[in-house]
Amino acid sequence: MTLLAVDWLLIIEKLVLIAIIVFASLGIALYTTFAERKVAAVLQDRPGPNRAGPFGLLQPFADGLKLIMKEEIIPTSSNKALFVLGPGLAMTAALMTCSVIPWSSHIEIFDRKIDLQIADINIGILYIFGVVSMGVYGMMIGGWASNNKFSLMAALRGASQAISYELAMGLSLIAVLMLSGSLSLKTIVDGQMAAGSYWNIVYQPLGFIIFFVCALAECNRTPFDLPEAENELNFGYHQEYSSMKLGFYLFSEYINMIMSSAVMASLYFGGFDIPFLDESTLAPNIAAIIGVAALLTKIAIFIFVFMWIRWTVPRFRYDQLMNLGWKTMIPLALFNMLVTGALILLKAGV
Question: Are 298 and 265 in contact (CB under 8 A)?
């Protein structure tokens, strides 16, 4: 009976944690759209959105209400079931990534230790790659089901781009896995927080640069936003979408950006670690809150860099994008992996 009660408590804890993380991700994504417009306005020397609410803070709600109120149109020549499935799959895949990210250490409530991670699985990195690959299906299904040649061309671009840059991203990660000896994100973060250790960015600067560039391509962000090349393919793979189906595609892009930032912070910048602060000297709940704040701060910095690049760097041509992925990123990732392996063997005295 006691074991059954503990199991039910664990299930309730995980469900509450899932609800908090999902709704927090949606809220952050909502205001990331506002932040992007404000960053663009600052870089272009103009005010940006400032009418809806004080300082324009209600603008995301106005935009969301506009999407909800818009007429929902499903083209008569489309595959209706797949047309509806596409944006749903893209949104689901984006949200599923958050389940293996360690948001902080743990909190203690009524003598119960609650980890601030939905699932600490020993193949966390593989899980993330699998879920990210599912997101490509959302793009492909939406582009194909629209029965529009421009949407299909944009979806094919997106799938080719994802395949090209996932290879380099995976190879850059192998070097981190060789250093940590684990596929678990929690173990990787704990290794960077251990006494006498440094963040992985110190050991893997080239690997981080490769991973960051590939993350830009995976999130379809400038200069790799070829699936949404408006001046070439009208509106991209969601050409025929309207109302909240379009909103799901747009939101999934921002959630992917948030989750990519969280993964990069966990892999290369210590996750929820704060340098020169010994979390073991603090009360568990205080340390957990500080850890969440530290990770969110690192995520915010990465998101700002994503936005800065979008409004600064011009879009690549498609042949340039493919050449960079296959002829530059993959050889660099292989070189980084081999050098890392050689240094590990040298250190071990083999």
Answer: yes
